[in-house]
Amino acid sequence: MFANREKASDKSAAEGGFLKRLRARLNKGDSWLTYDLANLAPGGGIDADVLDELEALLITADVGIETTETIITELRSSLARRELKDMTALQRGLRRALLAILEPVAKPLQIGKTGSPFVVLMIGVNGAGKTTTIGKLAKRFKDQGLSVMLAAGDTFRAAAVEQLQAWGESNAVPVIAQQAGADPAAVIFDACQAARARNIDVLLADTAGRLQNQQGLMDELVKIKRVAARLDAGAPHEIMLVLDASQGQNALLQAEKFHAALGLTGITVTKLDGTAKGGILLAIAHRLQLPVRFIGIGESAEDMQAFNADEFVDALLTRNETQ
Ligand SMILES: Nc1nc2c(ncn2[C@@H]2O[C@H](COP(=O)(O)OP(=O)(O)O)[C@@H](O)[C@H]2O)c(=O)[nH]1
Ligand SMILES: [Mg+2]
Fold first, then answer.
1. Which residues of 209-218 are buried (b: 16+ CB within 10 A; e: fewer)?
2. Number of the ligand closest to the Cα of 125
3. How far lies 210's CA from each of 92, 126, 240, in Å?
4. Which atom of ligand 1 sits closest to the CA of residue 122?
5. What domains sit in the chain, N to C, each tagged with a CATH number?
6. Which residues contact ligand 1 via a Cβ below 6 A?
7. What does pTM read for this prediction?
8. How close is the Cα of 121 to the center of ligand 1, in Å?
């Protein structure tokens, strides 16, 4: 009982820390919205010109033209209704518009003990953060009391298998792997069998992000998906696309391609620290309307959390006082 309470308070402390880091790291702490917003209307009054400037700001922050239009159209009608009297009102309107886009996609990944493995297939281009995200998720699920197994489905490079094994070791979770060059579908089928035999709750399957060509990659992933369903028609239960936020609009194009080929059920956006302005998350949410599961703001396990729309909008709109 006491131990549980202690654990819960540790958890909320870690989450509070995450929020602080999110604010500080998103676009390196220069809240592009709030900072520039305040400079848009030095006199304090809001007019059509201010909204035009905001429109340009959103586009340069990777929000994309279509999504920006939706946001600005909303604000223009507020302006016409004389609801945007000052900067505070504009911020409030902007917050509402951003939340309208992000709240519907903030759907956490719920995994329980069902008696058969919940299979998560991680996909995405090379370097997006698939293997790192698997390592972070392995720790997270283990901490939740679930048993976890990893499958080294990126057999394209030997280093990829070793990288996954290292995450397995540091979290003390088993890794099913074969030698580099092995058929990834066979590795993942083996892992599905092993996970069933060992009563594993969550199987996290890694995949390659680069093959000889893009069609080759998509064909391979389709095959893996089919093979994963052999022992359990419901598997893979989650097809999670991992996207690197610093790729901007290119990330959106990748998401559309992967979704068309495989039918995604969730997205994780990594590297929101660094140069990414975070607007790409709005573009993805608006265009694809797929659940955004987790966001990553750094390389360590604590630097990933379930996506929360309120917190994210806060981080976009709140100026980081320590900067
Ligand atoms: N700054 C930062 N780096 C990350 C994040 N997620 C992953 N990385 C780094 O991105 C690089 C590629 O990650 P990896 O998991 O190997 O990508 P994969 O090719 O998709 O498996 C590694 O150096 C990771 O440490 C993140 O949220 N923030
Ligand atoms: Mg990898």
1. bebeeeeebb
2. 1
3. 43, 6, 17
4. 20
5. 12-105 (1.20.120), 118-307 (3.40.50.300)
6. 124, 126-132, 209, 242, 270-271, 273-274, 296-299, 303
7. 0.91
8. 17
The stretch 117-142 carries a mean pLDDT of 96
Q: What is the SS3 assignment for 293?
A: strand
Q: Which ligand is nearest to the CA of 156?
A: 2
pLDDT for position 4: 43
Higher pLDDT, 17 or 246: 246
35-84 pLDDT, tens digit per residue, is: 667 777 777 789 999 999 899 989 888 899 999 999 999 999 999 999 99
Identify whether the C-beta of residue 270 lies closer than 8 Å to the C-beta of residue 158: no
Task: Write the CA distances from 142 to 12, 58, 113, integer angstroms.
Answer: 17, 39, 12
User: Residue 216 C-alpha to ligand 2 middle, in angstroms?
Assistant: 17
pLDDT at 7 over 50: no
| Token pair 């009563």 in the structure block, residue | 199
**What are residue 152's phi and psi, to 5 degrees?**
-85, 75
* Spatial distance between the Cα atoms of 31 and 312, rounded to a whole number of angstroms: 12
How much distance in Å is there from the Cα of 205 to the middle of ligand 2?
11
Q: With 80 as the cut, is the pLDDT of residue 211 above it? A: no
First-last CA distance in the chain = 40
Atom of ligand 1 nearest to the CA of 303: 27
User: Tokens 């996954």 identify what position?
Assistant: 164
Beta carbons of 152 and 177 less than 8 angstroms apart = yes
Q: Which ligand is nearest to the CA of 126?
A: 1
- Amino acid at the residue 98: L
Identify the pLDDT of residue 5. 42
Radius of gyration over alpha carbons of the chain, in Å? 21
Q: Which residue's structure tokens are 């008696």? A: 115
